TrEMBL record:
The active site is at C11, R17, D126. Acts on tyrosine phosphorylated proteins, low-MW aryl phosphates and natural and synthetic acyl phosphates. Residues 5-153 form the Phosphotyrosine protein phosphatase I domain. SUPFAM superfamilies: Phosphotyrosine protein phosphatases I. It comes from Sipha flava (yellow sugarcane aphid). This is Low molecular weight phosphotyrosine protein phosphatase. Its EC number is 3.1.3.2, 3.1.3.48. CDD domains: LMWPTP. It catalyses: a phosphate monoester + H2O = an alcohol + phosphate; O-phospho-L-tyrosyl-[protein] + H2O = L-tyrosyl-[protein] + phosphate. It holds the Pfam family LMWPc.
């Protein structure tokens, strides 16, 4: 990562919300002209989907918004708490898991991604069980607002 600042986005399985947030963050950083200053990844607290591609609905929403993205799901590790400057959870359950997993003295600052949403929509709900892409589109919009706001505050 060198001298870049680093962010990790975390949800439960790393196939819906967190890869969406990673892709959106990279796009938002590119649009703001600061992509050379940031490194981003995503992971899940659980390992059920390790090695899998993102959910098809995640990829559909990203493509529909002009974002090309490739990703293989991975599980968050203890080392990540020292590799990354910021680790974002998508909901309160993710935040509880992150706080429980974080080793004492590690450098990462744990934040709820939606806490940066200027519309105050702080919880990014898991759209996995939705039958269509509406929840995924909402996730995209929340991630875009939150990532853009975070980048504005951390230039």
């Amino acid at each position: 990562m060198g001298d870049k600042r680093s962010v990790m986005f975390v949800c439960l399985g790393n196939i819906c919300r967190s890869p969406m947030a990673e892709a959106v963050f990279k796009e938002a950083a590119k649009l703001k002209g600061v992509n050379d200053k940031w490194y981003a990844e995503s992971a899940g607290t659980g390992g059920w989907h390790v090695g899998c591609s993102p959910d098809d609905r995640t990829m559909t929403v990203l493509r529909n918004n002009g974002i090309q993205f490739k990703h293989s799901a991975q599980q968050l590790t203890k080392e990540d708490f020292n590799r990354f400057d910021f680790i974002f959870g998508m909901d309160q359950s993710n935040m509880r898991d992150l706080n429980r997993m974080k080793p004492k003295g590690s450098k990462a600052k744990l934040l709820l991604l939606g806490s940066f949403d200027p519309l105050g929509d702080s919880i990014i709900q898991d759209p996995y069980y939705d039958s269509d892409t509406k929840g995924f589109e909402k996730c995209y919009q929340q991630c875009m607002r939150s990532c853009t706001s975070f980048l504005e505050k951390h230039q």
